[in-house]
């Protein structure tokens, strides 16, 4: 129902701005940091406070809706995606950046209805960049319409990637092989420390592709819609249709760059959310 979706979109913008205020406020202060799965997987009290605040706001307004959040998900816990409206959030994507006062940090909120992403909002409050998308209605940064790059040749492409938090030797070996192949075959590589913002950057024409093995549903749901609404391709790295619970994603400005990337990469299985 259109009115409900309009209202949910307004709510999404509102909670993103509230989350942004909290990030901005804490950004230049000392942070209380804890580790999760590995010494490379961080959480701060700000991640937890934002997630609690946002979950409370959403559940108060929409008690029948479902909520999936990074900090309330236990390691290895499997989520079930239902047809119910589901709010999927990452309170701070780029927590390691946040801890190091690197401005590439954002709040990410995607909403799925009938298992399809209908709303995506990614807000980078330090850079003051608000990315928004609604299914079938294009995507925007600070109100300006986004269009992904039209490049089709991988040799002319800049590829964004994230190493992720796993420190498993075999996984790291495969990831090194992937970066090696891409340094050999693409124009350049960048790693900014936020999966969500990397996908938005591809949507904004700041690079031609992004891939990661080992990220989570809350890292790519909102960005995925922002990218497809900007004309980019979002798929499983193998070339199959994206499985939102499978912890891997490939995004590219055109199908040609997506296919070239898919052929080059070792497809690492990092499990399901
Ligand atoms: C992480 C960031 C990082 C990516 C990890 C994510 P977090 O999210 O997006 O770039 O490599 O896979 O988990 O922990 O900062 O919200």
UniProtKB/TrEMBL annotation:
GO molecular function: inositol monophosphate 1-phosphatase activity; metal ion binding
Gene3D superfamilies: 3.40.190.80, Fructose-1,6-Bisphosphatase, subunit A, domain 1 (3.30.540.10)
GO BP, one annotated term: inositol metabolic process
Catalytic activity entry: a myo-inositol phosphate + H2O = myo-inositol + phosphate
Keywords of the record: Hydrolase, Magnesium, Metal-binding
The keyword Hydrolase is annotated on this UniProt entry: yes
Keyword match Metal-binding: yes
Biological pathway: Polyol metabolism; myo-inositol biosynthesis; myo-inositol from D-glucose 6-phosphate: step 2/2
Named cofactor requirement(s): Mg(2+)
Any Pfam family the entry gives: Inositol_P
CDD domains: IMPase (cd01639)
Enzyme Commission number(s) of this protein: 3.1.3.25
UniProt similarity note: Belongs to the inositol monophosphatase superfamily.
Record protein name field: Inositol-1-monophosphatase
Taxon lineage: Eukaryota, Metazoa, Spiralia, Lophotrochozoa, Mollusca
